[in-house]
Design goal:
By secondary structure, the protein is α+β, with helices and mostly antiparallel strands. It is built from 17 helices and 12 strands. The strands form 3 sheets. It has a 5-stranded mixed β-barrel. The two termini are 43 Å apart.
Length: 602
Amino acid sequence: MSVPRPNPLLSDRDVDFQLYEVLDTAALCALPAFQEHSRDTFGLLLDSTRRFAREVLAPTYRPMDTSPPVFEHGRVRVHPAMRSLYANMVDLGLLTATRPPDVGGQQLPLTVHAVSSAYLMAANLSAYGYLGLTLGAAHLLEVFGTPWLREQFMAPLYRGEWTGTMALTEPQAGSSLADVKTRATPAPEGGYRLQGSKIFISGGDQDFTDNIVHLTLARIDGAEGGTRGVSLFAVPARRPEGGKLVPNDVQVAGVIHKIGWRGLPSLVLNFGEADDCHGWLVGQPGRGLACMFQMMNEARIMVGLNGVATASVAYQESLGYARERPQGRPAGIRDTARAQAPIIEHADVRRMLLRQKAIVEGGLALLLATSTQADLANHAPDEAARQRAHLLLDLLTPIAKTFPAEKGFESNALALQIHGGYGYSSEYLPEAWLRDQKLNSIHEGTTGIQGLDLLGRKAVAGGGAALQALDEEVRATTARARVAGVEPAWSDALEDALQQATSLTLELGARGMAGEVDSMLRHSADFLELFSVVAVAWRWLAQAAAAKEALGRNAAGDARFYEGKLAAAQYWFAVEVPRVPLLAHLCRTGEDSYARMHPDGF
């Protein structure tokens, strides 16, 4: 049986480095929206979430993983710890931390909120999932809801009295939202009556709050086919009627038994079996997806953070284990009278730990840079700056969602490998985190969908304006790195890699404009991989620059920390960046082995 070892979840030193030495997050306080804040107020939120995550939330992870929700008598009963956990998370203020005061918020930067949330995700991602989904639902109603919807549904969500979900997927449609069949019929008394089924609805039922609001896609009777005929509705599990809540004909039809995220139920929901499911239109008819993309994009950032957090907690666990676990002796030592060495002294273990570090800290850097663009997109002082930030946010979102999930799974597998035979056992936690991580590459659009989105929409949008903005950001980083004394070859390699990515994008975009859509998109997954390598290299170069600057200030007490940053940056440029030409070659030549493979050939 494993011996409990305090797990920091994320490295506080790395988080502070990323926020204040790499990004200068405190500079956001110069924006009017954040002028009431400072590094001190940021620290208050960080300190409270760190303490709660480590002392309260993390100990509940294993019990919730081993005792998943139960479906009984038509309702879902979740782990009893969730009642107090949810109330405690609400008390931390994370539901409204980034929202304006008029809805009860503190208007903190999303960048600070993101990293604070990452501690909770690392501690118990299922428990945090309820909060993250509720925040997304409430924010959607805040932006698109009528005053009545904001009062009736948004307010109790933000107060933590109810929870929220996004009810998009249907059994026959999957990710193809153009095939949504749930019907919405105008009701004589106002609003709509809904009928249909949804599947894979995370948090779709629970027993620790009085109500759940499902943000639901449906098609109004007579609407056109395809995505243009899809509208968005607020559908509560219990509707307000006569001053009280009454059942709203939303039935749980089944529970999906997942390999990971076991504390957050994934459900099949039926609406309107008794023709008494009431829903209220959110936004304009036929504009449901346009509204829903706000919540979906926020959820994609959340999934990316989950990927980083899940990889981080496993990395911290394997690092602690490697420092403590004695086994064997250094190469060349055969004297068995010598004490065994901790396995961290073995080169291959350090190889695996360094790859984890490069993925985890590179992924966190990418998510924080993306979150900073979200802060600027919403709050920069002029329209041009906001528009530029929106372009970068759109470009980075599919990368920030996918890289931590895909490479995070690899990182989690390395954590299990470092534990050896113990990693293969359920008595140790790496196997559970590995199960959790796999779902992140599926949640909120699979990796394949993210690749299509990046190449087919985001990278070519505005005639390449987003790529131009990214090029400006990268050149600012390489200039900083050169001044700081970072290895010049790294800056050269990053600029060359981005140039290759840009040229490839223009070439593939031209194919699409010429009607050669299959040729353009055939290797969209490789295109996404290529851009992930480049984006994380950009963030590692920024970390290397900050580390060099600190060493130049004679930060002797922290020298090992900064040297570790430089070693991880070296690793990324030596091992990952050289893959860019191969990935570009696959995209450019349209290598067709799987494309021409006949289904019967498998």
